[in-house]
Structures are given as structure tokens and as C-alpha cells.
Amino acid sequence: MKLILTEKPSVAKNIADALHIKTKKDGYFEGNGYIITWAFGHLLELYDAKDYDAKMKKWRMEYFPFIPQHFQYKVKTDSRNKEKVDFGAKKQLQIIKQLINRPDVEMIISACDYDREGQLIGDTIIYNLKTSKPVYRMLQNEWTPEEVLKGLQNLRPNTYMRPLLDAGISRQWADWVIGINLTSVTTLKYQKGSGSALNIGRVLLPTLKIIYDRDQEIENFVPEDYFKLSATFETKDGKQFEGVYMEKDEEKFKKKETLEAIQRALTNQQGTIINKTVERKKEYPPFLFNLSNLQGHITSKYKGWTSDKVLKVAQSLYEKKYITYPRTASIVLEESLVEKVNIVLNTLKKGLSYEKEITFIKSKRIFNNAKVESHSAIIPTYVIPKSLTKDEQIVYDAIKNRFIMQFMPIAEHEETKIFTKVENEIVQGYFLTKGRVQLVEGWRKVEKIESKDTVLPLVNIHDEVRILNQELISHVTKPPKHHTEKTLLRVMETCGKGKDQEEESEELMASILSGFSIGTPATRAETIQKLKTVGYITTENKYLKCTELGKKLVETFPVKELFDLEFTGKLEKTLADIEKQKVSRDHFLHFIFDFTTKAVETIKNEQDMILHEVHSKKKTMEVLGKCPLCGHHVIEGQKGFGCSNWKNGCKFVIWKNDKYLKALKKKPTKTMVKNLLKNGKVLVKGLTSKKGSKFDAELTYEKNPDNDYFSWKMEFPKSTTQSK
């Protein structure tokens, strides 16, 4: 028997489907010589400081810096109660342990995501269970049946992945040490009151600084006046065109008097066409998506989207086999994928109105090993989605369209420039007129991207034209705009290089490929979300701005290296270099521990001041009724309606995403829960059967005889006849 461990249940199901395994047991699939089990992401987490030393339960300045001699792992804690172990994680870990120790299991295959975080998840589970059985690695970029079978034929010894694990451990331990120590001493130093903390992180602070710097740039911006002069010309056959006055290739003038003198000199003057250029230009499609570009594209195009949401939807599409691995920094594909891409293209193009224009090509702009780091760009698979949610459709269409664009004709347009001179000693410059005509629509057809044509009259060099009128317009320079998630992701991806560039340059790609960035494609969305959650930034429309707390933190926090993009970029690059075996894990961690120790001392020696004052507020929760198990109050929580005595172990809860009600197209409401607790049953109208018909029924929520959990039961009112 071969035991496969996946990162999530959905991936285990994909592998089971590929191997035609139908038998599902508690926590695993089994059949055809394989057992397939799963984690739920991280089942294990690092010890808290108090797990190493009980005195660390209370933060005191003299306890820091705190750096463990040996890092240890424990079963992850419950998200609702950090004092308790996550029951689901503990149970699944026990199942995995039993399966690993089964006498008929001869080898273990880690099929967690092919990145440093996936390597860390798989290895911490497998090696903390202390097995001596051989461990192999499955390296997948997609979960289609064909690729799963291919992956099982090309397993690698897990020892081959040690550099990836070292990078994952280095990242995890470094973030723990910096986060625990600097968050603690910063909170003790600068916050009054308890209940929350001033979060400090290796990726959090430089990201905050990017937003702060843009805010300051806008606040300190001093607008300046500038002026432009335009003239309308008429040809001999009565056609008109407009030109903008230029001197030394500059059309903006600070001195109004200069242009006023030129404007007066144009009165009753003729112009002469001194030059005309016509250039046919090619427009290549935008590159394939990496995660940052996909997040930027979606968040700027659709309201209400965040980069975190884009990642979650893309991850869902990946696990459903519709797209390749989304957490990638690459915008090109590996050359080994040529044949597969041709198959995918032929599958996707069928039935499109422009199908005949789609032609497969093997181009360096699409396939280039030198520009791929770990994972290729995001593309669709050959599996065509049968049904997608509205959000999934948006993300899938964006990826599919960007993919098809690569194999459409290159768009072409003709750009015409007319240079008009007025013979007058005051008029030193010339008037420039630009025209544009789209000749080949090409890839623009895929998303119906329209081009605005500007058709100019036919003129030749030496033609004379009459000046009909001229206009002097005053303008004011505008401040830069606040960052959006799209622009912030670009700065994070490149550590500030090319922040104003839309297209990827060679320099930009080199910086991305070398790992010189803030965070990784997988973590940037999470960082932005955390900045919002901890109250350092806020969102106004689509713009990101510092809160007063975020601003104070940047201006006060004394460890300035953590705000420095260059410093953070070097740390991220070092992690990438650990993956490439250019730097050792021990060397990196020694640097982090030393840096943290010095940073703690720096904070301690700073002047005391209050940046943030926490005011404790007692929440008054509406009581919905008495708990049928223990008699305490039932209240509404974020995820369900539950007993207020849950901290002491009471398990009564009605989840807001209850599966039974969800199958009937209903969600529990406060009114429904109140009636249920008061009367023992509740009449629910408008339930939906499997066939889609509507009906009413009385529901009861009864305790199972074997345990403390509850199940729904349905009865029909005698006065109604149901057809289901």
C-alpha cells in the first residue's frame, strides 16, 4: 500500500478520482493499492512562548527577547478558543498517524502544494509522527486526472526537497521570532490597556510604509500651474485638424507669458507641413497572469474585490482542476508544456466566434524556461467547468481570456504624426498632431477591447494650412493617487522597482525571478488583509490609506530597518536563495535572531509614549433563549447561534452555514432560533426540495442519544399536503 498525504480534502478527492477509488472512510480514501488522506492546511503549529515557559503567559518587558533553543510543534489550537486544541485537527492527525503505522503501508507520498509552505505542511506532519518508512514527493502544477497519473509515475525522494523545507522553516521561525518579540515589546512600550496588540511583522511593516509614503506624498504635494497652446488648422480642401505647440519636445510651459507672445504671433499667419511620419505599430497581448497581476486585474476591474478574495477564488478553481497552480510569480510557461498547452488551446477555442483566428505558436514570449521560477504562469486546464459561481466565473474568464489572447493575431495600428511650422521668429517650435487608426484588431477581440481611432486629413510635406483659431489653456499639476491593491501589489512584487510601469520590463522580471520582493505571491493578499484587520490601514472606495494609528506607528517605531523595502527585499531574496542552496538555513536564522535581539533593546531604550489606548467595551449580546443542554443563554456569534457557556465545553450550536438547512436552500435566522428554543419546534416556510419545488415544514433540533451533538428532524403540518 502507498499512503498519499494531501494538503486539503478536495485534492485528495481529485487523486482518488484519477485512480478510480470510490471507497471513502473516516478521514481517507482507500483502493487500488493506495490510501489517500489529507490535512486541513496546517494541522500543527509552533509552540506559543507560554508553552516553552509558563511565566510567558504574562508579558513583561524583562522577559524579552525570547528565542527558544529548539522550536517545537503542537496540534493547532481552536480558532475560537486558543486555550483548546482544534478537535478536527487532532482527530485527523490521529487518523494520519494510524495510517502511517499500518503494517501494509510501505511508503508515504507527500502531495501537498508544490511550494515552500506546502513542503512545510507535509513534512511537519510526516516527520513529527516519527516514521522510518520512505517518503516521496509528488510535484504537481495541476490536479487533472492526466497530470495526477503522470505525477505518480515521476515521484522524487522527499530528501530532494530539503532546500524547500529549509526555506519554509526559515520563513516560519523568523516570522515567529520577529512577531512574538517585537509585537510584545512594542505593545508594552506604546499601548495603554489590554485586549489587543500592536502587531509587528517582517512583511507587515514595509507594506504599511509603502501606503504611508504615498499618503505623505499626497499631503505634501504643492500644485503648480502649467500652460498648453493648441491651434486648429484647415487644409486647402476645408479639412481641419488640431496641433499642440511643442518646443524641445515639451508641450507644458510654466510661464504663461511665453505662450501668450506666441499666441499673438499666430494672428493672420499660415502654417506649413514640415514633416509627416506614418508608422505601423504592433501591439502584443498582455503577458499571462501570475498571481499578483491577476489580483491587480480583478481588483481594479470589479467593485468589492480584494486581492485576498481573488486568491481564495483562484485556489478554489485550482482545487476543482480548472486552472493550474495560482501562487506563482511567473508570467511565462515552461517549455516542457508546449504539447499540453496545444491540447488545452484546442479544447478551449471550440465554438468561439473568432476560433479560426486562434493559432498555436511556440513563442519565447509564452514559453521560456529562463523566466520561470518554480511554477509557470496561471493558465486553464483542459477540464471545462460545468458550473461556476459568479465569482469563480469572473476569475476563470480572466485567466482563460488572457491565455487565448497569446494565440490570437498581434493587434496592429497605424500612428500618424504631422509637424506644422509657422514661420515667425517668435514661434521657435512647431505644432504636433497625432492620429491613430486600428488596422488589425487581433487579440483585442477576446475581451472586446475597443480602440479610439483619430483619423487625420490627408496632407503632404510642404502643404500650406490656414490657422483658424488658437487656444491657451491653463492646467494644474495633480498629486499622485492613493494606492489601490493593484498598485500596492506591484510595489510589493518588485520592492518598488517599476512602480509606475504597466508592462513587465527585463529589469522587473529579473527582480521578481530573483525573489527580491516583499512577501510571496501567496502571502501578499493576507498581508494587506491583516493591515486592515489590525487597524493600520483603511479602504475608501478602492483606495488604501493609513489610519491615524498606522501613521503614528510609522513615525514612532524605532526599528527603521523593518520599514525599509531594500532590507525586506533582501530577507525575501535570502529565503529564495535557501531554496537554491546558495545560503544555509542556520546562517539566515542566526542573522534573524541577532537582529531581533538588537531590535528589542532598541525599543526598550526608547522614550515611553502612548500610541494607542484600548478602551474595553462590554458587549451586550441579545439573549435568544435557554440552551437545551445546560440552561445558559443562547446568543448570536459570528459563525453561528450558540451557547454562551461554550468556553466550559457546552456544544450546543446552530451554525449559520448548517449543511442540512443549506441543502433545503435556507439559512437559520434569529427569529427562527428564538421560536425553536421557546417552542421546541419552528415552522419554516419556503424550503426547497431536491427537485426544486417549494414546501413548508416544522423543524425540530434534537440531541443525538450517543453524544452532545444535535440533528434536524422534519415534520409536516397536518393542514398542508406536500409534494417533494
Supply database-style keywords.
20% strand, Rossmann fold, 5 domains, 34% helix, disordered C terminus, globular, alpha+beta, Topoisomerase I, domain 3, single chain, seven-stranded mixed β-sheet, Topoisomerase I, domain 2, 724 residues, six-stranded antiparallel beta barrel
Overall tally of domains: 5
CATH class (first level) name of the largest domain: Mainly Alpha
The share of residues in helices is 25-40%
Terminal CA distance: 45 Å
> By CATH's scheme, which homologous superfamily of the largest domain applies?
Topoisomerase I, domain 2
CATH architecture level-2 label of the largest domain: Orthogonal Bundle
The CATH topology of the largest domain, please?
Topoisomerase I, domain 2
Tally of individual helices? 20
Low-confidence stretches: 720-724
Query: In what order do the strands lie side by side in the largest sheet?
Result: 2-3-4-1-7-8-9
Mean pLDDT: 92
Q: Quick one: biggest sheet?
A: 7 strands, mixed
Report the principal-axis shape: globular
Could you tell me the number of beta strands?
26
Structural class: alpha+beta
Strand content: 15-25%
- Rg, rounded, reads 32 Å
Please outline what is shown here.
Helices cover 34% and strands 20% of the residues. It contains 20 helices and 26 strands.
What does this structure look like?
- The protein is α+β, with helices and mostly antiparallel strands.
- It folds into five domains: 2-154, Rossmann fold, CATH 3.40.50.140; 173-219 and 484-613, Topoisomerase I, domain 2; 225-282 and 411-476, Topoisomerase I, domain 3, CATH 2.70.20; 291-405, Topoisomerase I, domain 4 (Orthogonal Bundle); 625-715, no CATH class.
- Helices cover 34% and strands 20% of the residues.
- It has 20 helices and 26 strands.
- Strands 2-3-4-1-7-8-9 form a seven-stranded mixed beta sheet, sandwiched between helices. Strands 11-12-15-14-13-16 form a six-stranded antiparallel beta barrel.
- Helix 6 (162-190) runs antiparallel to helix 17 (565-579), helix 9 (291-301) packs antiparallel against helix 13 (485-494) and helix 10 crosses helix 15 (524-533).
- The longest helix has 29 residues, at 162-190.
